[in-house]
Amino acid sequence: MEFESMIVSLFDEYRVTVHFGRDARNDFLSFDPNIQETILALIRARAMRGPLCKPKGIGEPLHGELHGFVRIKPKHLGLRIVYRPVQKDETVMMEIIAIGPRDKDQVYRRAARRIAQFAEEMARRKE
User: Whole-angstrom Cα distance, residue 122 to residue 50?
Assistant: First the structure.
C-alpha cells in the first residue's frame, strides 16, 4: 500500500487520482529510481495541465483497440505512458495501463493485450 499512498499524495491537489493497473505498476517498478521519478513527474505535469482528451484537456486520443486511452510521449526518454482518463464529478482518474518503450509501437501492443484484465481491475476498484 505504500506505493498507492505515495501516488495519492502526489496528485491530490490537482483533483486527479492516478491508478496503476497491476501490469502497469510492474512496468513502472522495472525502471531504475531516477526514471521512476521522471515518469511520475510526467504524469504529474499532465495532471496539472489537463489529463482529459481534447478539447477538455490536452490528451490526444488513441484509436482502434485503444480508443478512449491517451498517451504521454516524452521524446527525450523514448518511452510512452498509456492511460485512460475518466471524469468523475470534480475529479479525473488517470488509469494507467502500460508504460514502456516507443520502439515499434511495443507499448501500444502491450496495452491492447491488457485491456480485458485492466477493465476488470478498474471495475473492482470502483466497487
Answer: 21
- The Cα–Cα gap between 50 and 58 comes to 6
3-state secondary structure of 114: helix
Domain spans in the chain, listed from the N-terminal domain onward: 2-126
Per-residue confidence band for 1, with pLDDT thresholds at 50, 70 and 90: very low
Q: Torsion angle, CA of 29/60/42/126, rounded to 10 degrees?
A: -60
Is residue 18 within 8 A of residue 85, CB to CB? The reply is no
Within 10 Å of residue 94's Cβ, how many Cβ atoms? 25
86 — alpha (psi -120 to 50), left (phi > 0) or beta?
A: beta
Look at residue 15 in the predicted model and tell me its pLDDT.
82
Q: Does domain 2-126 have CATH number 3.90.700.10?
A: no
Which stretches of 44-125 are assigned E, i.e. beta strand?
A: 70-72, 79-88, 91-101
